[in-house]
């Protein structure tokens, strides 16, 4: 079968080359349709429970997407005249931010005071103030005693303050977020030019979205060129031929262009995880080319002409290259089991690229290799002495290797439980991304970016004025404030306490909730009527005044800590406020739950991939027993790698859940190529098991080492990604692939020798498959 296909491929190579070129240009035109989305919500599908709860809350109250601009005066006192003037200027200018709906700062905080029987609602820092020492002392005293400001808008020590801009993106085009972020950076530049004695830090949800884009663009402009150079060096070193290297690079570029073009035609948007697809495709495509070209060059060295050498190379490699491509595709398609849509996209894009690489490796590559070969008999003879020595070592040390590697595997697997699912989504970015540095400063000096929003429903219109409801909301907020992980609690009850105090001549003993519903409703109405446009209470109570939102700001929390906090809050509400419905939602909570669910879903995906790949190998090897044997070196590398990760790191992020299924398809490649040569030696050359192992090492050893080096370097390059999910995935994948080569070179031959010996003892013929020559 392989021989007949090889004849067809060689006979019609120029037609296949032309068809391949047309296919590449047709598909690659779809690159013009590619778009990049920066919204963090792309990490969640439309059925995600936490996303739906968060969107419902966003539709009930004002949006909480924001840009937070933190100001740190070099005087370390935000209540100096210059800084207060600067904050006033920034507050005024911030209203010009595209899609802004609200601006909050210490200067425009709606301070309330009683004047006779009237309630005065005024900016804390009015424009007509002279800001003399007495006025500044009064402003400072009010600000640092106001629960709605401290640890949210101004730091407890008065060293840092912030202007918070609430944003409501219409969602009509992809560059809305960038438009807001660019305006914020421009506003920062104008502020520093006008008020140079200050430092400015920008964070918030909008800037988080922008950081995703910045990190992805940084990766694409740095990692891909570096990977291209590494592949170029590896190919030149392995093939010892500039012309073969050029042919391979053309095939790789064609594969990437086809995959990314198809992505555009399919309407798939590029996200930070899927932005690594070209790098992965580049590394995967090399493997196909190296196996075909190494055999081609070996045949030339043996005296074959160009056409005969390529025909033989295709005959020998067609089945294993097809199988490795198929198993790799299955591995990456298993990522569709993920609960994270960008990982679906990554798996699907790479699967498209691997498919294209296989097709082009038997159409475009052979034609180019034959075309570019001018002096076929002057290639350097491949030396296999080192691989012969490895074969001798494995054969002679079969038992120690079998038991030693088995014991090592068991020991490392014992550390698997040490891996703990933990993500901190601010730390998705390294410190080369400005968002990370700015956010770290804000977290350390002002407030947190991690929030949990709690919507408490009274069950009746106007119920937020009900004393019992207000009391429960205040008790809940007081409980939350005492939790060690909580930095700030923003609650409507603080406003009601202050209004009650104001309406009793600012007597401190009346800083408590009104005890009469009608009185509370009157206070609320009077207050709302006095508020300026854009600073209403829709961020705290809903339109029907039946529910209130309590915003809990926390320190940096990991996935597990966030879920634990959610459970604490839920348990308190279930015990103490059973009469009221509640919902807890936030981006932090969404990321916490998606990490947990994603791990479970990817275990299912990896299991499904394992079953499919096992079925493929059993059919290809025509033996259930051999199929089972082949699974050992395919499953062991991931277990060992995760065990080592448990020893050295122990923190598993959302991206690492992909590695088991993804690498399963990759590490099978070495096994398939080794077994293909092994079975060919036994079937075609009637070799014994030791001789067949020698033959396999001699004929595929160099190609396996080369492809492994390229794959390891390719995924290691990803470790330089500014996006930690990609970086961690690259490191663990590179580790898994490295281990896979060791297992295939040392454990697989030992298993084959053991199986052969047992079969011979039982007088059971060993059934091994190979390509049948034509």
From TrEMBL:
It is a multi-pass membrane protein. It is found in: Cell membrane. The chain crosses the membrane at residues 12-31, 220-239, 246-268, 280-297, 318-337, 349-374, 600-621, 628-648, 654-675, 696-723, 729-753. Keywords: Cell membrane, Membrane, Transmembrane, Transmembrane helix. It holds the Pfam family MMPL. Residues 244-371, 662-754 form the SSD domain. This is MMPL family transporter. It comes from Aliikangiella maris.
